[in-house]
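Teaching assistant's notes for section 4

Start the section by putting this record on the projector. Ask students to predict, before seeing the second block, whether Formiminoglutamate deiminase will look compact or extended. Collect guesses on the board.
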Amino acid sequence: MTDDAFPPESEAGPEADPPIYTPPHEVEAEVAAAREPERAQSAGPQTLWFEQALLTDGWARDVRFTITDGMISRIDTDVARQAGEVVHGPCLPGLPNLHSHAFQRAMAGLTETRGPTGDSFWTWRELMYRFVDRLGPDEVQAIAALAYMEMLETGSTRVGEFHYLHHDKDGSPYGDPAEMAARIAAAADETGIGLTLLPVFYAHAGFGGVAPGEGQRRFVHDVDGYGRLIEASRAAVAGLPDAVVGIAPHSLRAVTGEELTAILPLAGAGPIHIHIAEQTKEVDDCLAATGARPVRWLMNNAPVDKRWCLVHATHLNAMETERLAKSGAVAGLCPITEANLGDGVFPAHDYLAAGGAFGIGSDSNVLIDAAEELRTLEYGQRLTRRARNVLAKAPGGSTGGALFKAAVSGGAQALGVVGGLRRGRPADFVTLDRAHPAMSGRDGDALLDSLVFAGRHGAIDGVWRGGRQVVSSGRHDAREAILARYRAALGSVLA
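Reveal the predicted structure now:
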């Protein structure tokens, strides 16, 4: 993207008729109407029959789920299909997407032009700051709805929204400190995706408590203001049936040690997410400021345990890799974004060998595709180690199966829920299209290998969230309404 891709409004050129933009509150009825068949099917117990399903204890054939109030109330295996039951293709648990900045979906493809002095994560960040200056609550909701729709269509049934766009364009708080959080919740409700909301504490522009820059004015809080944000965010998601609220100290460069200690009690039993060791500059700056690398400093100064998700953690030495694996925390990996931003490659082989847990996220949402995140994770290991099937668990083991199952478990842990298909758990699952070429003749883990490495678009046929089918024949049931709002919102932002 060139430097003038987001010109100041005074340089935007001759006035033109603004795009027709329907605010979210005026189209909610349209979205609700599109979802009415889905809501109707969720009334009372329902049964669904699958040729095979990946349950928590492995693959099963001829499976019937009984779903009551959005939960799997019964699972029968090796049972014949009853008259009137529709045959559904292979059934998989939905993948958690543990790390998203929804608003960045609207930047996808706009930052791929080389700048005059080269490009890096840090030059990308400056362009992101300029883009965010153009977003209001309506635009954020419209963009988030598109991102969440695409997540569902590619097999993610819950998102961890690492939410740091809090204030108005001039940096002043909204009347409701959770105004933007409420728009994220509304987008989740419209699309049907499960939401783990992670309001971000952001106070500084660098290690040692450096004052925030002008581009960060919409993100920043002090400790007391952050406490009010967390309280208001819990109220904002109260209408969502299974929403989770955690906390997210942005990074060690944006939060001092004293502030980190002060905000941790706000998490309660909820998840704690933090960006860490994404860039080599961050590692160098942390060493200069504290005498320790970021992951080592965090392990030595915070009670890192199973509630924590360390996002990226790209640049680890051997000691940090083992300590993170043994801590019980989840490494939040975002391979597509990490490749797009030139971050580096996470030491996944050594981390998994040490028993570490991981999940995947779409981060900048430059491309939303859960299977491609897993594929990119494995391919990064193949390229750096010059080997194949690096992350398979053992000789003869399925690489796609190992990746998929680990991402379900680790992603759910990071988002404060329990993953997998089992009686008493949410009816969040995905079905594959048997007619898709990549699924032909495959069974069991071979289906996962084909989904991850050969699936391309169209392999996912249906998606259910809380027992309601929100994706049919690969398309979200409110797709047209969501797309129309997004196009209008983006037209307004880029005008």
